Amino acid sequence: MSNILIEANNISKIYDPDILLKRGKNIYALNNVNFELQKGDFISIMGPSGSGKSTLLNCLSTLDNPSRGDIQIFGKHLSRMRKDELCEFRYQKLGFVFQNHNLIPYLSIYDNIAAPIILGHQSKKEIEAKVLEMAKTLEIEKILDKFPHECSGGECQRTAIARALINHPEIIFCDEPTGNLDSKNSHKLLTILSKLNQNDTTIVLVTHDPMIASYAKTMMYLYDSGIKTVIQRNQANQREFLDQINDIIHQDTLLFEFDKTIQPTSSSQDTKPQQMNIQNQDIAFVSRQTVYMVMDGIESDENILKNSTSLYIEGTHVKYTNVRNDDIEFDLQDIQEIRMNLTAHFQSFGIFSQYIFNIQLDCVSEKGIYKLKLKNRDDFIHFIHYFHQLHIPVDDPRHIEETYQQYPDDYSRQKYYQRTHKDLIKYK
After folding, report:
1. Which of 13, 44, 422 is nearest to 232 (CA)?
2. Residue 166 falls inside a structural domain
3. Kind of pairing, strands 289-295 and 310-314?
4. Alpha carbons 2 and 52: distance in angstroms, whole number
């Protein structure tokens, strides 16, 4: 069973879209971002104001929808889920902790914690047992009869965590949870989150504070609406990880924006940030990556290329970036077989809504299978021919190559797939 909980491919979020082309450009909060969350991860997301941190968190947690791209949550495409399915998913799988604890002021601490399971129609005994257990874990059992205005900021935030955990969610999303706390209470809060993570609760945390980020296993740094750097703690202690995080932030201060002649400090020269990797698992085969294939001599669609992860083919050398932002390279001469299949997803365009088909391409080697999902359209037939020239066997049970020969334009080919591959379409 896969450990991947959430997978985002090439997601973009556009605010105030320039539909009438008056400005000549769109305002991107996120631009072509790839993200993968596995069970047991503890990821901190950092970046300057306006870099897209909260927007990314909202899209991953289903509170907002991306303008472009695809998000899968627990193996299900977000675009295919109905509102009632999303509500049930949030209730069962997710917990939320915000900068302002957002407690209900006219409810007691007990009732605030119990609110999510009261909505779930559980018995009074079950509710009481769960609330007391959670309050004891977070050391707030003595304030259950108080109201939020009678409690300190740290107590209110721990109450918010108790409320987020009362259904034992698999993922906790935290948006600046220590923003209104002093250093002592911030440390207590992060210690609690770290213990939860040790017990397999997955955590995604947005923060401006490097110290807070150093409690995580992975730090992802956003800049100009995209992921710029990803570093993993690995075996480093918290102080060493904090130094790495500070180096990343230091390189992106306004000082470096305006004066490129200034050299990094000695600490950044001594400590080279490590790219994120996965222990006991080859980074090349962790998940399927959506790509747009590019090769010299074949004309590319610039609009697709601009909003896609590029897979470059130079001779027989292939390189691309996977969903965990690792650089992947392999040689087509090492590929034993190429397997092609189709996948379909529903694209909402109002009255023009329809199912869109994409090609799944599996490049089988002795090391493993490079799993790709292609955004190429009319130009893909050239790549099929190239695979034949290299004498790579192609397994094509859905006769994709034949379809490209018979229907060379994308529109007619998509209509043909809708007629002939109804097993991929689930009309509701």
Report:
1. 44
2. yes
3. parallel
4. 28
**What confidence category does residue 146 fall into, taking pLDDT thresholds of 50, 70 and 90?**
very high
Round to whole Å and give the CA distance between 92 and 269. Answer: 46
Mean pLDDT of 27-39: 85
Neighbours of 385 (CB within 10 A): 11
Spatial neighbors of 4 by CB under 8 A, at least 6 apart, are 36, 37, 38, 39, 72, 75, 286, 287
- Cα dist from 156 to 98, 109, 125, 132, 196, whole Å: 11, 8, 24, 16, 18
Least reliable range by pLDDT among 213-217, 353-357, 406-410: 353-357
Q: Which two tokens stand for residue 264?
A: 């990094």
Model confidence, pTM: 0.67
Position 397 in a domain: yes
Q: Are residues 225 and 334 in the same domain?
A: no
**pLDDT, tens digit, 9 for 90 and up, residues 75-101:** 888 877 888 888 888 888 888 888 778
Calculate the average pLDDT of the chain: 82
Q: Say if CB 46 and CB 53 are below 8 A apart.
A: yes
Q: Is residue 23 classed as helix, strand or coil in its secondary structure?
A: coil
- Is 280 within the bounds of a domain? no
Residues 36 and 168 both lie in one domain: yes
Q: Residue 64 and residue 96: Cα distance in Å, rounded?
A: 14
Give me the residue label for tokens 């209110």.
Answer: 156
> 265 to each of 208, 246, 286, how far by Cα in Å?
21, 11, 35
Highest mean pLDDT among 21-25, 278-282, 383-387: 383-387
Structure tokens at 181: 């706390």
- Residue 271 CA to residue 296 CA, distance in Å, equals 38
Residue 181: what are its φ and ψ, rounded to 5°? Answer: -115, 155
* Percent share of the chain, pLDDT over 70: 87
User: What's residue 16's pLDDT?
Assistant: 64
Asked, for residue 245, whether it belongs to a domain, the answer is: yes
- 408: its two tokens: 């060379």
Token pair of 384, please? 């099929």
Instruction: State the first-to-last Cα distance of the chain, in angstroms, to the nearest integer.
Output: 27
